[in-house]
Amino acid sequence: MAKIKFNLNHKDVEVELDPSTRLIDVLREHFGLKGVKEGCGEGSCGACVVLLDGYSVNSCLLPLANVEGHEVITIEEFSKTKRFEVLKEAFADEGATQCGFCSPGMIIAGESLLSHNPHPTEEEAREALSGNLCRCTGYQSIVHAVLEASKKGEGLW
Amino acid sequence: MSKYPTSVKKVDFPEKISGKAKYADDFVFPDMQYAKTVRSTIPCGKIKKITVPKLPDGYYWISAKDIVKENVVNIIFSDWPVFADGRVNYCGEAIGIFVGEDKAILDKLCEEIKVEYEPETPIYDFSEAYISKGYKKGDYEAAKKKAKQVVRRTYQTGYQEQAYIEPQGLVLYYDESGKMTITGSMQCPFYVKRAVMRTLGLKDDEVRVIQPAVGGAFGGKEHYPSLIGAQLATASYKIHKPIKMVFERYEDIAYSTKRHPSKTEMEALIDENKNIIGIKSKVSLNGGAYKGCSGVVLSRALIAATNAYVIPNLDISGDVYRTNTVPTAAFRGFGSPQTIFAMEMFIHHIAKEIGVDPLELRMKYLAKQGDITANSGKFHDPIVLDKLFEKAMEMSDYKRKIAEYSKPGSLRGIGMSCFLHGCGFTGSGESDIIHAKVKVSKDENDHVTCYASSVDMGQGCRTTLKHIVAKNLGLPDDEVEMDYPDTDKTPDSGPTAASRTIIIVGFLMEKAAKNLKKIWKKGVAQEIIEPYVGPSYIHWDEETMQGDAYPSYSWGVNVVEVEFSPVTFEITLKGVWSVYDVGRVVDERIAVGQADGGVLQGIGYGFMENETCVDGKFKQRSLSDYIIPTTMDVPHMETAFIDNPFIYGADGAKGMGELTLVGGAPAVALAIENAIGKEIHKIPATPEYIMEVLKDGKN
């Protein structure tokens, strides 16, 4: 057991847990943040990605100890932002959500890309989303949605 | 301006995109327990002794001895036990479950339990047929005497894993009235309900099933949740507490049902004018340890044996084989991806062998309205395959490319498949067996709600079914409600399978809405329960497989372009073009989504997705080694629809969910064949297989 402090969704939090606990379990079970989805538990599918200091990371691979002193943002917080609204509209328009299980992760991966590269090429968008698996859409709508958001959200990123 | 101006807002989109939608694992109930499965470690044998470790307080071991009524999972053919009783028939078969509140303790108990076996010799090959079917058309033997040439090939297809992103899982709890209630990842709430009723001997009003958001299914959640449901219900009988069982990914890939691997031996009879006068096809499917729904999978595989081609003399037969492996079951396409792959490759290989142009040979035998089907029924409805071909060739620049890529030295290849898919249950099953019903009601405030048991597992049926009702009542979409299915409130409109949701359930919704409109009285609560009445001209004999195999067919053409690396033997996708006749499209955005996802799943099946079973165990048990396509693997995809309304479909719509998958594998395999200049006989056409074909001439 150890006391770990980090910033979660813009609030300083402290938890006393085994430091090897997976971040996903801390988020889902301790904080009830169920928008963080577990699809594979081994970093292959990206359904569990969260923003760690602004970059998307698989929360199933990250031990709690590694977030000490860092900032974690989940879909629950990100969905309150203007950037989310732009991504959401683009995903809606393109039909980029079907079963929806990969969607929160796709949104987080899209935000991670656009916040570091506001005007990605299609190739860059495909690469940035390649860690997120989707079995429903064939990806085309998702890639187009992220590119569309980059255009419509001009100035936001 | 929206990309799809005629499409409506997807009802579940806001909750899904923001992470608020609740899937199986997101449900938490007070005093909730977890369940973990103890599985057979051998493929086949008797269970001699089970030594259960000392259980901490509040922990339970549930196994065959706890079965309340019947130790069987209610599937079409019910031979799969809920818990192994005295013997096991595949690696991973459930022997029992541990139930308790701490997952770590459950893991420890699973490690500590000792199961002693008396192993028997397992079967893995096609040697013990446990289901056989067949049919004939014309007189194949007489045609054989007239034939001047006989062409033969054998085709093989591998396992395919559904790889829905949300793993299998259910949660059992008690509703406000204390009734046993099950929620979770499933395709067919009434299947789960009936499975629980049968295993526990419960009456219709003693169990309730409510579907939440489902993270993909593709057939994989058609029957398997019935097993999990029966297990949890058996445990709850003893424990009386909410119980959750959600699979880890390795458990899901290693032990849940997949697509049947197949071998199809084909023979074509050619006359002196280079006409195909007969085809013989013998299909072998690996059914795994239990039959389950394999008989129906075989039936649908055989019906599709000659795909979209009309050939006068046929001898079609097939068997499902028992093996000591994980049972195979439903997967988008349900038998037809295997035989359509074989037929598409075969017609190409026949053309090459008899020296005619493959495209010309295909066009000669394409089905037309009024033609006699393989099963001696009739293609009743208009068929516009010629338009589909024309459009697909124009979009993909097929003719120029095939000429260019067929030149020696080209590393590019292009392949085209054409295909059909039967919509709805086989034959008159919809009218005679399923008896689907839907309900559309309104309250005193004229607020309309529609009810169907069709599960929205991503394909958008909550949006489209609701839209059909709103449109027919002349109301805006947001003035009509449709919730997730709840077996206490929703009539049984049949399973979410067989590409039947829009053509059958949608058709019913349309009729119900029209009937409600006729009797509409302002300010009065009214309801319409609409039972299915299918086309009266559909007649089918399941025993002889003669008659109209389906109420209707959807059609498609896929073109795939690839590039081959002579260094790594890898294949890169360069373009995908698809044209479909799904009757009339209800919602274009949703339809394009089905098209993109389906064709990619089919293409993945053709060259990428590799699941191998060695000594009864799958070698690939994670999404790192069972590879499905990622954003990096997908090229530009373009889809078009040709309007061809069907009179018994909702606003003219036919089925499309499965159609979009079945042509991907042959199209990519033919593209690879075009690129490497050698015949492909097996999928997935992995780099290893391509290397064998090129270096050793082993197809």
Structural class of chain B: alpha+beta
> CATH class of the largest domain in chain A, anyone?
Alpha Beta
What is the helix/strand order of chain A? Answer: EEHEEEHHHHH
Uncertain spans of chain A: none
* Major sheet: arrangement of strands of chain A: 2-1-5-3-4
Descriptive report:
The complex is a heterodimer of chains A (157) and B (699). Chain A has 157 residues and is of the alpha+beta class. Chain A folds into 2 domains: 2-77, Beta-grasp domain (Ubiquitin-like (UB roll)), CATH 3.10.20.30; 81-151, DNA polymerase, domain 1, CATH 1.10.150.120. Chain A is built from 6 helices and 5 strands; from the N terminus they run ββαβββααααα. In chain A, strands 2-1-5-3-4 form a 5-stranded mixed sheet. In chain A, strand 1 and strand 2 (11-17) form a beta hairpin. The longest helix of chain A has 14 residues, at 103-116. Chain A is globular, with a radius of gyration of 15 Å. The mean pLDDT of chain A is 98. Chain B is α+β, with helices and mostly antiparallel strands and 699 residues long. In chain B, the strands form 7 sheets. A 7-stranded mixed sheet of chain B has the order 3-5-1-12-9-10-11, with helices on both faces. In chain B, strands 7-15-14-13-8-28 form a 6-stranded mixed sheet, sandwiched between helices. Chain B has 3 domains: 24-121 and 163-255, Aldehyde oxidase/xanthine dehydrogenase, molybdopterin binding domain (Aldehyde Oxidoreductase, domain 4, 2-Layer Sandwich); 262-426 and 544-696, Aldehyde oxidase/xanthine dehydrogenase, molybdopterin binding domain (Aldehyde Oxidoreductase, domain 4), CATH 3.30.365; 429-531, Aldehyde oxidase/xanthine dehydrogenase, molybdopterin binding domain (Aldehyde Oxidoreductase, domain 4, 2-Layer Sandwich), CATH 3.30.365.10. In chain B, helix 7 runs parallel beside helix 8, helix 8 packs across helix 9 and helix 13 (461-473) packs parallel to helix 14. Chain B has 18 helices and 28 strands. The longest helix of chain B has 20 residues, at 588-607. At the A-B interface, helix 3, helix 4, helix 5 and helix 6 of A face helix 1 and helix 15 of B.
